Write the structure tokens for this entry.
Amino acid sequence: MASPGSIAYPDRFYAAAAYAGFGAASSASASLSRFQNDVALLLYALHQQATAGPCNVPKPRAWSPVEQSKWTSWHGLGSMPSAEAMRLFVKILEEEDPGWYSRVPEFNPQPVVDIEMHKPKEEANIVPASTNGTSSVPEPKTISENGSSVETQDKVVILEGLSTVSAHEEWTALFVSGQRPKPRYEHGATILQDKMYIFGGNHNGRYLSDLQVLDLKSLTWSKIDAKLQEGMSDSAKTAQVSPCAGHSLISCGNKFFSVAGHTKDPSDSITVKEFDPHTCTWSIVRTYGKPPVSRGGQSVTLVGSTLVVFGGEDAKRGLLNDLHILDLETMTWDDMDAIGTPPAPRSDHAAACHADRYLLIFGGGSHATCFNDLHVLDLQTMEWSRPKQQGLIPSPRAGHAGATVGENWYIVGGGNNKSGVSETLVLNMSTLAWSVVSTVEGRVPLASEGMTLLYSNYSGEDYLISFGGYNGRYSNEAYALKLSVKLDSQSSTKDQPISDTTSRVLEPEVEISQDGKIREIAVDNADLKNRNDEANEQLLAALKAEKEELEATLNREGLQTVQLKEEITEAEARNTELTKELQAVRGQLAAEQSRCFKLEVDVAELRQKLQSLDALEREVELLRRQKAASEQAALDAKQKQGSGGVWGWLVGTPPDDSDS
């Protein structure tokens, strides 16, 4: 039975789908019952996306909640490509059931033919290299400045370790000895004292815990039997290190740290481990403050005496874009708040520090897409920005690796869930200009996700070293790229570019055979002088053309500035006129408001007078009634007096004296 690492896509997906229960003769519901509900729904949605494409069926009725959940999960994938859905399906299955491949039915995929990387040319009649990674060749004749031949004594030139890599700007497979590590990706790697350490990683969905070391002097692999020391005393017990993947290895002094990472039984917060090469022991670092939530696929960048942690994916597959700093002197965590727009939540991105002040974040991915954006955080002002990238903008990718050499940031590998990225890029962090260093062909380890990239200065030469990765199969190959003098000079003197021809004549030309033999070829100094003159003329012409272009650009910018000034003057004049009109309108409005107020006062006075008139009318009416009543009373009194005198006379009553 073929291992999953040897099964290419889409056959690998169909094998995984058959195991998960999506075959014609199996019940998907019964097979998916072994997973949690959210995982089962995601697997169903990814299978539908990979086989049927985006969801275009109507939403089920409300009385079918299971079908509604399945439809929602499938519809949420949007327009995710089929190839991406296949790779995510297999990745999630490996995380949930690492041993699925050992129980899958016999599967016979078509063999995958790889196109070989750059291999040294095979030379005839060359003494075989020694087994310790060194080679010895006689030194050739040299030519003096006047062109005459000068015989020299044969000398033995010993080339060992990374010195066996001679070709500049071309990836070369390292011829190593010793037992190679198990193929893996999402591992951690660092270089300490001319040794490359590899720790943990993921192989066929299983997390690893081994610690391997490659001696860059002898190119020999060896395994370190490292233990985890529990406690700080000399009598402390030792235990096995927990397997992990997606963590970061950072060298500091004579030790290195392992930060974060996915584990089978994740903790609530990030775990920091320290490895001491002298005692070959791991120890858990006690930290203070509030540690970040546990995660994997984050970036950890050494800035001075601090570690800057950004992003990643937590234990529940939630993507993060938070920022935390660990002070290595006090081992204290600090949760940082930055202004500006931060990068979108992501994992498997790359990060670098420039000038001990700027943190650069490039690429990475979410569950549905990959990014090619570049974000910069000013660690002094704590402000995010997204500057404009120059040159050839890289394609979206995740799982790539990066390493800095001076002002240059090299990016290798990565993928977009369809295929691996074949080119090696370099970003000048001062100008933010991208350029291509080299390109590989075929499905080779350098076009992989989850690989590592490290920088090493060996015997005065700068090298990039890559290891591992996954591109349909797991890799345990180590490759090296020797940086040219041109790129190294650009990183130190930006204003003094050196042409490729000039840089290459500083060293003799070198040819290397497949067995690692090296033959140095002397170069004619007169030819070098001619080539230098031609290179200088070309450089001068290029500088003149660039100067003319810059002057033309400056003139255009000057014209635009003049136009903008005129527009600003016109706008200010219009603003002045509008201000005057506004003030006049405000004066008229104030006068109208005053007149209205006076009218309101007059109306109030008239209302008071009307009320007074009503009261007077009521008093006059009352007086009229009183007058009428008085007149009636007087009339009645007269009538009464007249009738009383007649009766008194009749009865003989004498009249009242008062009446007379």
User: Anything to note?
Assistant: The chain has eight helices and 34 strands. Confidence is low (pLDDT under 50) at residues 108-157, 486-526. The first strand starts at residue 134 and ends at 138.
